[in-house]
Amino acid sequence: MSFDHAWVLWLLPLALLPVWLERQQGSLYSWMALAPQDRLSDIAGLLLRYLSAVILACLVFALAGPHGAVHEVERIGKGAQLVLVIDRSASMDDPFAGAVADGQAGETKAAAAKRLIAKFVDERPDDMVGVVTFSNSAMHVIPLTQSRAAIHAAITAAGGSGLLQTNIGAGLTSGVAMFDKMPDSGSRAIMLLSDGAGRITPRAKRKISDWLERQHVNLYWIVLRQPDGISIFKPNAQLANDGQEPAEIELHKFFQTLKIKYQAYEADDPKTLQAAIQDISLKEKKPIRYLQRIPGRNYSSHFVIAAALLISLLLAIKHLGVRSWQPA
Fold it and tell me: Are residues 251 and 137 in the same domain?
């Protein structure tokens, strides 16, 4: 048995106070020979003191929060170990490039992503989901977990204000690192959502390539297009001012060289974003094995009920008492 608040057990010695303390009760007699011998009253008095001690002990145990040991049960479901790597640069608070559909007029890319990802998580109860956000650096929001409450809280937290930079390299390396020391369930993927891309150093590229291949992680990139932004699927994109290809196209070509399953999408509005997420859902829904943590049974209520029953018994015994002895 474990306790949520084990420090409360230090109060247990107080339960012995009714046993230690003597209580003066009854009538005073000038001559003790006048008082009859009453063994039943002596036993009842002793019983009351010990009952009081047990009641106090039960209340202390209840306050300590006793519960059984947590154990793990292997389950089989359909889903994946999925890490959401979400762009939180300031541009994510801008609207989509294309026309907005389905009555979501004025919805920003960040708001649409949060809404649709939450729906995606609810539709896949067997998934283990982790969340990483990034702007100028990566933020490890929540590790891979099956707790839907924790996942939704992490998605909500990912909607905060960001900075102007888009450090995709840091976001991806943090996302892949979540799979380290995590047993492979048979289906692993990273869903990268961003509205742009930054240059990734050759060192970061080697690390991302090595980790993705070694961890057997699939990669899906959903590009939330900027207004008048370029397309990563455009074969003859204009060169940047420094003579290089745009960062988005360079990153897309790098992803295509990876020795893993890679798929890219472009979303111009919430409708196309939803279609991309649904397509990923169909691709990453395989039989998986996972361990579900079962919390131990809470025994606090048992001690409270026991204390209540003992208090009822104590009151019943007290009610049978006689305040003074009447001589015959």
Answer: yes
Domain limits for position 45: 2-25+35-69+296-319
87 and 151 both lie in a single domain: yes
What is the C-alpha to C-alpha distance for residues 283 and 80, in angstroms, rounded to an integer? 10
Same domain, 101 and 195: yes
Instruction: Answer yes or no: is 327 within a domain.
Output: no
User: How many CB atoms are closer than 10 A to CB 141?
Assistant: 20
Question: Bridge partners of 290?
Answer: 75
Query: No. of H helices and E strands in the chain?
Result: 9, 10
- In angstroms, the CA 270 to CA 107 distance is 8
First to last CA, the chain: 56
User: Could you tell me which residues are beta bridge partners of residue 2?
Assistant: 67
Per-residue model confidence as pLDDT tens digits over 284-305: 877 776 666 777 788 899 999 9
Residue 319 token pair:
């009610």
Contact partners, residue 159, CB within 8 Å, separation at least 6: 88, 110, 111, 114
User: Model's pTM, two decimal places?
Assistant: 0.64
* Count of structural domains, the chain: 2
Give tens-digit pLDDT for 205-250.
898 899 898 888 999 999 887 666 778 887 565 555 556 778 888 8
